[in-house]
Amino acid sequence: MVKLAEKHIQQTTLSNGITLIVIPNPTTEIIAGRIFCRHAGSLWESPSQAGIFNLLASVMAKGTKKRTSLDIAEIIESKGAGLSVNTSTDYFVVSVKTVTDDFADILSLAGEILRYPSFPSSEVNLEKKITIQNILSQQEQPLNVAFNQLKEMLYSAHHPYGYSLLGTTETVNNLTVDDLKLCHQQYIRPDHLVISLAGNIDLERATILVNEVFGDWAKPRENPAPFTVTIPTPQAKYQQINQSNQQTMMMLGYLAPEMSNAHYPTLKLLSTYLGNGLSSRLFVELREKRGLAYDVSAFYPTRIATSQFVLYMGSAPENLEIGLTGLKNEVQRLREIPLIPEELQNSKNKLLGQYALGKQTNGELAQTLGWYQTVGLGIEYDQNFPEAIKNVTSDDIQQVACEYLNDSRLCVSIVS
Predict the structure, then answer these.
(1) Is the overall model pTM greater than 0.85, yes or no?
(2) Which of 40, 65, 127, 199 could crosslink 92 through cysteines, CB 3.0-4.6 Å?
(3) What is the CA radius of gyration of the chain?
């Protein structure tokens, strides 16, 4: 058992491999939980089944061996609780939130949904239609079109990060109930689970409840086939799609390190400096001073495997060339001119302040701690990350900018 005394966080591993994390908070009568499933999510999809985990998440709560979707909805609504199933690129998760007195019942329902989904054909077909509608809708949005094009350039058609979490119209249309059952059987298993609970509960009580729901779930004898994905070689590329839009969307993208890389905190700070809020460099320089942008920002997604660092700007079509040059110049400036101490400290304060504000509720605490454990960094990363941010120097910023944000790695995606 692991204890972080300063936050009273407790962690243990059950006999079937489930990792349990408890963040006691006796000042509230609300318990929020996340049941993460690692080694599940779009990173583990084959190109021919792109979108299968998204579809799996959409239909798992639409029926179990004992209950219909209406039965499930009535239980949740009668208790005023929250229960949802979602997926991401790097994990699969069931989220719960309820008052303390009802937590045992809601956890039991979550376990039933996770272990015994029935995948009714009518519900699967309905969710497939909704997903395909969402895919078609995204194809009409310049920001999504530009980003999907950029991901294909950065990665490839065969890398899971290179296509949409939703999949494609073709792959979703081809998915069957049997495909979903096999995916569930292979990837949703007790030794892949990280259960993170925050609220009026302690480790002893949590262990009893989790064992009641999941204790008889035996770990499969066979492990899934080892997962391998080819990391692409960074290459400079340029692609433009003409849609006759009133706004031109331009994106600059670079392959960037995964979350476990030592440069991850520095790049997070750099993305905050460039694109976080009205005081960010891109906003001030390209919108406020030059009036080039309707929208301008930067982001660096947290990923288990190789991520991407992206700058984007929406502008009038006639500003394409000058806007693109402006974005490139801001990156070049980072490589050539160190941040002054005031710029660096302001960015640290902003990032650390937002990080602290993102952990105010039980749900946010359960999400953060469970997520760190799921991606392999451990719950102690909640303390390590802020310390790493505090230690970043201007030299560090310039070094990672030169290493990762250079023209030999630059992919440019334009939708006009």
Answers:
(1) yes
(2) 40
(3) 23
